[in-house]
Amino acid sequence: MKLLVFSAKDFEIPFIDKANKNHHKVAYIKDALDCHSANRALGYRAISIFSGDDASLKVLEKLWDLGVRYITLRSAGYNNIHVKAAKRIGFKVANTPDYSPHAIAEHAVALLLAMNRKLILADKRVHQYNFVQDGLLGFNLNGKTCGIIGTGRIGSVMAKIMHGFGCNILANDLAPNENLKALYDVSYTSLEDLCARADMISIHIPLTFENHYLINKHTLSLMKKTAVLINTSRGSIVDTKALIETLSNHGLGAYCTDVYEKEKGVFFKDHSKDGLEEEPLKKLLAFPNVLLSPHQAFITQEALTNIAETTFENIDCWEKGVACKNELGYETLVT
Question: Under a CB-based contact definition with an 8 Å cutoff, are residues 7 and 49 in contact?
């Protein structure tokens, strides 16, 4: 099958090539999928897209007219594709739901530790031969309360890691995990109670219509003024305007994130020469207690290997005409 990979990054291409094993005809473009770049898919039966690609209704209609029939996402989240419209048109759509929960959870912890122990500031100082310790005060994780919003694959790993640090763990999820209660003494509670009691709060839920701006002016106001909020999920789960206001009023200890509400046109590009026009992001980056990484949590050898292999597992299933376990809506297809 001919596959066109949108938003192809140089670092992931070797993993995709290796997983393909010369079976499918694969082409790569660095452009993100949108109404304009969709024309590049002419002659391809399948495309692979990333979280920053636009697979809205208008784009999907254009892709169908061009002959595309299969869409496989190199991500677990799929809020960037209009799934109902895609299935109504006739597309087969699949994601990579379990590529590496550890990669994301470990990155969340890395952000927390880097912020808490002031590692960025310390590194900058010593590279300037400044070895003073002023301003490097942090706190022990041991004995602190960690709140985890969402205890699916990634949130479960986060609970295991934070339990290892000796944290007391609160969680909020629509479907409590009994194993986490037994193994790591996780206590499930309401979102409001979690926000009020936790010293660190880590978000691990997919973006849906219902949880858009789940972290808003109200929930932020419940948090301790010393609390650290961590987001390695999706940017739009946090209301950026409310967050900036809270940080400006010293209502939050720190914000650590790998995502941003309006990544399109900003992330995955080098703006070092031309600068940024996205004012809210510039305001966020101006806070000394904000640590942002460029949506890199998934960039590990293991995760990229799994993403690439799952991409071709999906395509192989479609090519053979057999059920694809990662196809969105798979449960309804087999029941």
Answer: yes
Q: Are strands 2-5 and 46-49 parallel, antiparallel or unpaired?
A: parallel
- DSSP 8-state class, residue 4: E
- Specify the pLDDT at position 44: 97
Cross-strand partners of 229: 201, 255
State mean pLDDT over 239-255: 98
91: closest CA among 71, 73, 117? 71
**CATH class of residue range 2-99+300-329:** alpha beta
The domains spanning 2-99+300-329 and 101-292 adopt the same CATH topology: yes
Q: How many CA atoms lie within 13 A of 293 on its CB side?
A: 22
Task: Look at the block and give the residue holding tokens 């932020």.
Answer: 220
Rounded to a whole number of angstroms, the distance between the first and last alpha carbons of the chain is: 28
Phi, psi values for residue 207, rounded to 5°: -80, 125
Question: Could you tell me what percent of the chain has a pLDDT over 90?
Answer: 93
Compute, in degrees rounded to 10, the torsion defined by CA atoms 17, 21, 24, 25. Answer: 50
CA–CA dist 107, 54 (Å, integer)? 26
Contact between 315 and 68 (Cβ < 8 Å): no
| Mean pLDDT over each residue of the chain, to the nearest integer | 95
CATH of 101-292, one of 3.40.630.30, 1.20.1050.10, 3.40.50.720, 2.60.40.10: 3.40.50.720
- The length of the chain is 335
The tokens describing 110, both together, are: 């890395």
Total-model pTM: 0.91
Q: Which two tokens stand for residue 272?
A: 């070092």
Could you state, in order of their start, the residue ranges of all structural domains in the chain? 2-99+300-329, 101-292
Q: Which sequence positions are flagged as catalytic?
A: 234, 263, 295
Strand-by-strand arrangement of the 25-28 sheet: 25-28, 2-5, 46-49, 70-73, 92-94
